[in-house]
Amino acid sequence: MTRPTRPAPHQLLALVAACLLAACGGGGGENATESASTATTASAPATPTDTTATDAEAAHNHALDSALGDTAAAAGPSATVADPVTPAPDNPAPTAPAAEAVAGTASLPVLAVAQWRLAQTHVLPPEGLRWAQPNNKSISLHLAGGRAALALVDLNGAVPTDPQVEARVGDTVLGRVALQDNSALPPTEAGGERFSATARVATLPAEWLQPGLQLRVAATNANPSGWQALTVGPTTTLDIRSLPFYLYGATEQLISLDKASKPSAQAMNELVAKWPVSQLSVVQHPATKVEWPQLVVSPRNGDAAYVMSRYEDRKDGFDPISAVLNTLGLMREANGDAATAHQYYGALIQPKATGGYADNIGGLGGGHSGAGDPSFAGVFIHEQGHAFGMPHAGESYAAGTGYPYPGGSLKGSAWGYDQVRQRFMSTLVPSSASRYAACTTHNFGGTPRQLDAQGRCIRQDPMQSGSGDQAAGDIFTLFSDYNAGVVQQYLEGVASLDSKGNTVWDGGRLQESAASATGYRRWNSLTGTWVAVDPALDTSKALYGINNHTPVQKGVPVYTLVATFSNAGTPGVSMVMPPIGPYTGNLARYPDPSQPADLAALQPSGAWGWYCMYNGCDYTLRVSYTNGTVRHVALQKAFRPWFGPSAAPAATATDPLNSGSFRRWAVNVPADAPLAKVELLDTPMAWNGLPAAPTVLASRTLP
User: Fold this and answer.
1) How far is residue 347 CA from its own chain's centroid?
2) For the chain, which domains are there?
3) Smallest Cα–Cα separation from 575: which of 219, 326, 293, 355?
4) Any idea which residues carry the catalytic annotation?
5) pTM of the model
6) Nearest residue to 384 (alpha-carbon basis) of 279, 280, 494
7) What is the maximal distance between C-alpha atoms in the chain?
8) For the chain, which terminus, N or C, has the lower number of CB atoms within 10 Å?
């Protein structure tokens, strides 16, 4: 076994690690909750890759975004938003031709296409867009599969008679749709200038949008144009699971569960219009809600860990948000969602002593999750931007870490297109926007508002104070084309070949699919195909959980148990939280140090020999049920060095002001009987077995 080098302490998502730490006040934090990659050989990996934002790493100041806020109130919640939304504006049905193509006639001219452009969330050239990134990487944006698109076609030469757009994939002709003249061009929002005075338009049905798509224009008075190849990605899905936290005695009398856990129908339509996803859903988490009378905040901003029993106990407004964000990331991993296209969002419901609840509190995001207020407006879309891996746009531009447009603006971005409402969105601030009147005076992080050559104001991206640049009545403003590409690449990833010809992936999420023999698949951008993957194939000896923490049971009754512990002995903060559930969730396998077979597997030569290499496994949950059943769960991520399960912890592990002295864990356990008691036990080097009488560090007895 080759011993790896000690990891960087806060390595985040490969695309945005430096950005998030720089933009969001990085530094020490709670235990990491996800590895983004799994070792592919038997040698130890150099570092664990932590993609869940810890309390300290996620902390960043959103005061400007929160102060500016959103100007439009969301419509009432709608149950329909729980269903996947696929943008498909009204369009004529394609007519399947009887033959592969319109035959050419020697006496007729050939149609000449001057320009093809396609629009889903943004107006793109056929090949899409690409931006070079540091470290020889790139971000790209292209058409999404399985999603309708607007074709914009400029023609040269004579006016065609009965022009149509024909489509094919390989030798298969998909059909044809009418190519309308420029009068059919959709309008621009807020009465803005028209996108084009010459482009003809055709709506391409969603079923046409697939890899290998080619288009051409045909007419009765001309020979068809040449075929134009389009870059089309896969049909992707994104599922956001919303779980509100009702804290310090908050009830649904303050804000209804429906409002706290679901965006409005309008908000859903706007999300569909702005994210290049084929199918999007925002649904209630199956746990429905979390009700905790207290919240434990980890050490951050120079303060020791402490307990909040009311909103007024906060030392910083982002303290409770950071605790909820970290809890969401741990719950996501506990449910086996770490590698999948499932994001989490948690709205905090915090009653105030003066009445009502704390609103417009800002938010935090990172590691596939976001947390903030229940309005599902500017804070929500910004924090889920961090969940996709986006840093603050202006800071990224200034640091040269990826974002291509000055000041976090859209200066240079392609126009947007609202496919649901069928209207273009210019990169200019709309005349109806709440910030339009004084827009030239705005300053964002020390950078003045960007202007075009005519002195008109250019929008800010939602990831840099963009809230308020949307047209009146809208909830969200427009993302840049680049950040739309970040969303797309988050789902698709990038495939390449290593020196041995093996396929390796950079980013991308697993899609759960009944069409895959393993139940999971991922997109191979090299071949343009879905490939079955087995996330349970463990070549890292349980370093990232047994079978990479893939569920062994799905859709079964579970409890989620959350425990906190201060190794520095900070009073009152070591706690077993009230169990979440029972609800329908997933179960992964954990080592039970009371079982001889599991102890054998935990030995260095055993099947799970690296489980305790992840900062040690010195703590165990003992879970007792009312029917007499007792289960034990050995917890990873204690306070020891990386690949030093017997080594002494660093000095920071006993510093009450250092986040490295604090841990928060979450596990799912079976809910096959009511719980009686949950205890956090001190079990040093758990591979040696449980002590005869382990010290109980924290416990909760259930009524």
Assistant:
1) 16
2) 112-229 (2.60.40), 493-532 (no CATH), 541-701 (no CATH)
3) 293
4) 383
5) 0.88
6) 280
7) 96
8) C
